[in-house]
Specification:
- By secondary structure, the chain is an alpha/beta fold.
- Helix content is about 30%, strand content about 20%.
- The protein folds into two domains: about 110 residues, D-Maltodextrin-Binding Protein, domain 2 (3-Layer(aba) Sandwich), CATH 3.40.190; about 140 residues, Periplasmic binding protein-like II (D-Maltodextrin-Binding Protein, domain 2, 3-Layer(aba) Sandwich).
- The strands form five sheets. A six-stranded mixed β-sheet has the order 1-15-11-14-12-13, sandwiched between helices.
- A hairpin with a 3-residue loop joins strand 4 and strand 5.
- It contains nine helices and 17 strands.
- Helix 1 packs across helix 8.
Amino acid sequence: MSFTQLRGFGLALAAASILAACGGQSSTSSSNAPAASAPASSSAAAPAAEGKEYKVAMNAQFPPFESMNSAGQIEGFDVDVMNAIAKEEGFKVTYHQQAWDGIFASLKAGDNDILISGITITDDRKKEMLFSEPYYKITQVVLVPQGKNIASVEDLKKMDKVGVTIGTTGDLAAQKILGATSEKIIRLENLPLMLKEVETGAVDAVISDSAVVADYVKKKGDKGFTMVEVPDFTVEYYGIAVRQDDKALMDKINSGLKKIQASGEYDKISDKYFAK
C-alpha cells in the first residue's frame, strides 16, 4: 500500500453531521481469530440460550466493517465485535441489512435495538441516541488511481471530479475543501458504487475513511491505486448506538466491550481485518 503525505494543509475538519459515517485504522496488535459471519436475519451465537435477543442494524456496504457475502450473510469486523460482546454478556443478536439513509430512523422507531455500522460519534447524534465507549479510531484519506498525483490540497482542488459517499464524513471533507455547492463533488449512494467510479476513471479522486480505503488498496495493489494520508483531517471515533431510554442495554454493551478489550479478543478480531 502506498502512502503520500499531504503537506502545507491547515484544514481542520469539524465533527461529522448527523448523517456522516466514517471508518479507520486501529492501533491494535498481534494474533488472528476466525471471523463469524451472520445471516442477515438470523441469530449470532451466544452462550445463554435464555438470553434476550436484540435486533442489530447494519448497512452492509462498508467493507471490511460490514458487507454481504455470496451466501447472503452479513460479515465483517463489526459483526465479530458485536458477536464477542453478546457472548460475554449472555444475550443474542440478529443482524438486519438497513439502508444508510434510514438506519437512525429504524432505531428511533423500534425496528432495531442496536446500531453498529461504522457510525461516528458526534455531538448531534448524542442528542438522539446513546453511544458506547469508542471502539475504533479513524480519519479521512484521499484515494487516487494510477497516473493521478496529489502533493497538496491545491492539487485536489484542480481535479475535475472528486467522489464521495453521500452523507458521510468524506462528503463533509470535500465540502470543506471544494465548497458545499461545488459541482466537482460527485456524490454516490454507497461505497461500492463510489469505488467503481474511481476504477473506471469517472472520478479523479475519492475521499473516504482510512481503514476502508486501506482495505481497498490492499486488494487492488496491482492496479496502482494510492492512499494519500491527510494529517490535518480530524480524528474520529466509531461507537455502538442504542435508544436513549435503553441505558441497561448500553451498560451491557460497554461491559462486554471492556471485557473483550481486556482479554485480547478485540485485538484478535482487529488483526484479522486490519493487520498489515
